[in-house]
């Protein structure tokens, strides 16, 4: 492994939190004895600090912070309901968020659920009520002198002075942003701030870019308006010189897509704004900035999807062609890129050398729910985690040339929830040299899905499809546990009856002079033959699978669906708004279940239906959050 540094892995599972390590590039990862494994079964979150000094996790009783150098716990915070954790950019503060609840029996009904702790002192320095589930955290300037927080319809602006307590009141409040968003550039101070304000009837949605502290409505550096935008995701490059605006709508008014419409726009701190032109129809699957901040990559269009590299003027730099892909992953230095085909796609992976614009390898990692590059930059991790998939959990580590370096299968009846690489401060790791030379790996022990065509049990001993052979002569698939060619007495009787019927039909056809009667008998014979093969029943055609379903994936999907299918007898929470949201989510999950059943039967799905299936994990998390609130 490049740099001769071997990052540790932090692992969160249904049985606790642990750290794994490796001593050499080809040595397996094993539990680190220096880390005292947390045995809690209620660990909800785990996170490394950006500078790599700390590891924090919430175990259902407290939030704990340990130093990575010796894995010793240095801070413990009394936050048993902590659901999300996030460090500030300089690792000075730790933010914790809990699902907001109100208890009518408490004297104080409204209690804070977003807390801010000073990592060095362990003191709580700030708290506030934050009901937003998405975009709950503070948005910081890179030097931590500024923090913005979206609460309700207002953006609260806090200025932080060195060696001074965190301010209890904001220096400015910016209203009119209900259901909107805010984002702060990661570049040097003074930072740039982008605001998204949703449109109203007759007025478009708007994104404006400001340079702090000039945040007045008439002081934007750049702005972009769009009528078709119910939601906007703001993506900054690492240098903070440009921001991509990924807009989406709940419903596509043109009727081309049931799941809405996406578009991509770009604004720069120089005041330029562009619409990114994608030259094919279909959904926009993924967008990612290169860590070099000079270009970005987009995957879009119907499958097989296109992938294109754009520069800062939104001109096409390189076309990667088409492939079965829906996600993008750059390594730490931007010299290697992975395209992944996950979710409804069976785990296709392409590795590209960005400097040479050349594909290095193709490989396949079925049932992947998580992919992350090592900070060293030459290997990456793939994992199968819950709650997206609850069976066959585990993780693998791959060299960028395609060699499998490590594989761990998680124990049955346990769930792997999260795996993440250790982080390092900027400047510690040097850019790896990309080599296309293949290295030797290990053989995977993951069971491979059978490629044999699926035949329903009731048809495995019937007539061969499309043949005129009798049941006694047709090749039959062996029945597990029984000798080849075994037939029960009932099956033997059916074979004999079918044989006699075929013989009688042949005799009737030979002795009959009436052409019309012969034609009728021939038609009847075809119907009986098809019926015995399972293609008709009661005059109605059966639907049979055209392709072999993945038995492992099918089991995993059943587990997920069974855990999320709404209970018709379940009582309401007493909160009409929450009940309405839960009802909507349950309806969507029910629709996804039906789509999965169609997919398992081999029916072709539309691209919009595939996208809906891929949203299942997000819906499950949202439903879980509502149920526990």
Task: Give a description of the structure.
With 629 residues, this protein is α+β, with helices and mostly antiparallel strands. 16% of the residues lie in helices and 32% in strands. The protein contains 6 helices and 38 strands. The strands form 10 sheets. Strands 3-2-1-36 form a 4-stranded antiparallel β-sheet, with no helix packed on it. The protein has a 4-stranded antiparallel β-sheet with strand order 4-5-6-7, with no helix packed on it. Helix 1 runs antiparallel to helix 2 (515-532), helix 3 (551-564) packs antiparallel against helix 4 (576-600) and helix 4 runs antiparallel to helix 6. The longest helix is centred in the last third of the chain and has 25 residues, at 576-600.
Average pLDDT, all residues: 81
- Termini separation comes to 45 Å
Model regions low in confidence, pLDDT < 50 over at least 5 residues:
463-475, 513-569
Q: C-alpha Rg, in Å?
A: 30 Å
According to DSSP, the number of beta strands is 38
Separate helix tally: 6
Q: What percentage of residues falls in helices of 4 or more residues?
A: 10-25%
Q: Structural class of the helices, strands and pairings?
A: alpha+beta
The main pleated sheet reads as: 4 strands, antiparallel
> How does the overall form come out from the CA principal axes?
globular
């Amino acid at each position: 492994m490049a740099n001769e540094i071997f990052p540790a892995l932090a692992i969160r599972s249904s049985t606790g939190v642990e750290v794994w390590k490796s001593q050499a590039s080809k040595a397996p990862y094993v539990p680190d004895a220096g880390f005292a494994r947390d045995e809690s079964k209620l660990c909800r979150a785990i996170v490394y600090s950006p500078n790599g000094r700390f590891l924090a996790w919430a175990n259902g009783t407290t939030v704990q912070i340990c130093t990575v150098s010796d894995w010793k716990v240095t801070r413990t915070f009394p936050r048993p309901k902590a659901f999300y954790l996030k460090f500030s950019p300089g690792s000075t503060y730790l933010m914790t968020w809990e699902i907001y609840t109100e208890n009518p029996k408490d004297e104080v009904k409204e209690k804070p659920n977003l807390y801010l702790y000073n990592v060095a002192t362990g003191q709580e320095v700030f708290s506030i009520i934050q009901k937003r589930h998405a975009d709950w955290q503070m948005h910081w300037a890179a030097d931590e002198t500024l923090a913005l927080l979206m609460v309700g319809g207002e953006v609260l602006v806090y200025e932080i002075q060195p060696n001074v307590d965190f301010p209890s009141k904001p220096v400015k409040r910016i209203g009119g942003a209900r259901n909107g968003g805010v984002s702060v550039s990661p570049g040097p101070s003074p930072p740039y701030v982008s605001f998204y304000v949703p449109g109203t009837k007759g007025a478009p949605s708007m994104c404006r870019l400001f340079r702090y502290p000039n945040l007045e409505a008439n002081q934007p550096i750049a702005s972009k308006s769009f009528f078709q935008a119910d939601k906007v995701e703001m993506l900054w490059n690492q240098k903070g010189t440009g921001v991509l605006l990924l807009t989406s709508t709940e419903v596509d008014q043109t009727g081309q897509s049931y799941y809405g419409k996406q578009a991509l726009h770009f604004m720069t701190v120089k005041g330029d704004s562009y619409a990114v032109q994608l030259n094919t129809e279909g959904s926009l699957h993924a967008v990612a900035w290169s860590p070099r901040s000079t270009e970005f990559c987009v995957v879009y269009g119907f499958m097989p999807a296109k992938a294109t590299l754009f520069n800062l003027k939104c001109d096409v730099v390189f076309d990667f062609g088409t492939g079965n892909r829906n996600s993008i992953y750059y390594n730490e230095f931007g010299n290697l890129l992975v395209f992944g085909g996950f979710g409804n796609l069976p785990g296709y992976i392409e590795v590209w050398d960005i400097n040479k614009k050349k594909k290095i390898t193709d490989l396949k990692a079925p049932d992947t729910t998580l992919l992350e590059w090592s900070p060293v930059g030459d290997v990456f991790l793939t994992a199968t985690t819950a709650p997206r998939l609850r069976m066959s959990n585990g993780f693998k580590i791959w060299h960028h040339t395609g060699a499998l370096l490590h594989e761990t299968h998680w124990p049955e009846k346990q769930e792997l929830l999260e795996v993440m690489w250790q982080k390092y401060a900027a400047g510690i790791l040097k850019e790896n040299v990309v080599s296309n030379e293949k290295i030797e790996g290990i053989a995977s022990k993951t069971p491979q899905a059978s490629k044999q065509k699926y035949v329903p049990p009731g048809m495995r001993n019937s007539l061969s499809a499309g043949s005129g052979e009798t049941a006694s002569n047709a090749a039959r698939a062996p029945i597990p546990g029984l000798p080849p060619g075994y037939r029960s007495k009932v099956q033997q009787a059916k074979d004999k009856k079918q044989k006699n019927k075929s013989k009688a039909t042949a005799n009737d056809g030979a002795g009959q002079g009436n052409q019309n009667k012969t034609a009728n008998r021939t038609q009847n014979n075809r119907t009986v033959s098809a019926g015995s093969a399972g293609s008709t029943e009661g005059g109605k055609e059966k639907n049979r699978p055209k392709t072999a379903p993945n038995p492992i994936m099918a089991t995993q999907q059943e587990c997920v669906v069974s855990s999320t299918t709404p209970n018709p007898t379940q009582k309401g929470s007493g909160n009409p708004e929450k009940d309405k949201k839960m009802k909507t989510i349950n309806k969507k999950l029910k629709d996804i279940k039906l789509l999965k059943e169609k997919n398992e039967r081999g029916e072709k799905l539309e691209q919009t239906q595939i996208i809906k299936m891929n949203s299942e994990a997000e819906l499950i998390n949202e439903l879980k959050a509502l149920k526990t609130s």
